[in-house]
Amino acid sequence: MWALPNINAMNARAASEASKLRGAIRRGPGKRQKCQYYGCGARAIESAPRFDIFSEDPKGLVYVCAGHNPWDVEGFFLCDECQRVMCDHITWERYQVELDGRTLCLKCAAEEYFTDPSNWIDPRQVREVGISPDGAPLFDPAAGYLNLARCHHVLDVNQPLPAGIKFADNAEFDSMDGHQISGGRLLDIIDALEGQEFCPVLDAGYQFAVSVGFTCASPPLRTG
Fold first, then answer.
1. In order along the chain (224 residues), what is the average pLDDT of each group of 10 residues?
2. Prior bond to 219 cis, omega within 30?
3. 27 in a structural domain
4. What is the number of domains present in the chain?
5. What is the CA radius of gyration of the chain?
């Protein structure tokens, strides 16, 4: 069982050490620093900053030789949008997702997903909510059917929300059979939005459960 790290303490430490890390990047690796790619014992020639989804400050360095890229080191990846070397995970949940054929960190995925008007739903059109992993779209306006199995994973526990997005409510589901294990009646959650368009997303992926977050724009995209 994993324990959630203290994100605020992690961010504060990174902010206080940011200037020191920038200096280390400029200087490059020491003469004895080895490449961190698995099985490579070559001398490192690059000190690349590594980031996570919780703040803009680098959280450390990745050392590589001339024959390897920083994002090829186990536990890291390159985000196709922000072009930063990102930490793959800290706890059980991964911070790397595929969205429209690109590899993105959850921060970039969230910003991109929430700005797409096609991902926003008028709650007054929703008549039924279910989990259908058989290919049904996220929302069928003709049938009024919201398929939570098609919610994209674009948020993580304690990840800052993009500007202009606010959390309304959530519900959690067993990741094996899909039955709801916490949260209110789904149609009641949607009715409580009072006509404000919403964007349902996977906002946490635990070892044995997932959370679907019902997010809204702030200020509202639509009211009444």
1. 73 92 92 96 95 94 97 97 95 89 96 94 96 90 96 92 95 93 96 96 90 88 43
2. yes
3. yes
4. 2
5. 20
